[in-house]
Amino acid sequence: MESGTVRTLVRLTVANRLSAAYLALVALVVVKAAIDSGQDPDPGYAWAWPPLVTFPAFLLVGALCRTAWDPARTPDWFFVSTIVVSALLQALALGALGRAVRTRHQRMMRSC
């Protein structure tokens, strides 16, 4: 990949307000789940929230990656890495959507 393409992907994924707010929300939910599971001997549904926040991409990434392991013997790091990859994919999609809306809005304003 060219450096311009990588720079564009990084800008869309991290360096805009919409994606940054989404990634901050995911980080907050993961930190809360980690704190809740560390304090409570029976955390219950503490770790159910991070997949729900990253839901559409979490299902796809999880389904693709579960072919490598038996679901009963999946390592713990796999769950967290699936949340991270899903959040980054959705942040990229949000960044692209935000850019498309801004571009369309600017074109409409110029034509008026």
Structure description:
With 112 residues, this protein is mainly alpha-helical. The chain contains five helices and no strands. Helix 1 (3-13) packs across helix 5.
Rg from C-alpha positions? 18 Å
Instruction: Classify the helix fraction into a percent range.
Output: over 70%
* Tertiary shape: elongated
Q: Distance between termini?
A: 38 Å
* Number of helices, counting only DSSP H or I runs of 4 residues or more: 5
Largest sheet: none
Number of strands: 0
Structural class: mainly alpha
Series of secondary-structure elements, N-terminal to C-terminal: HHHHH
Strand content: under 5%
The poorly predicted ranges are: none
Mean pLDDT score: 86
Write a concise synopsis of the structure shown.
The mean pLDDT is 86. This protein is 77% helix and 0% strand. The protein is mainly α and 112 residues long.
Overview features:
112 residues, mainly alpha, 5 helices, 0% strand, elongated
Topology readout:
Blueprint (H helix, E strand, L loop, with lengths): L2 H11 L3 H23 L9 H5 L1 H11 L10 H36 L1
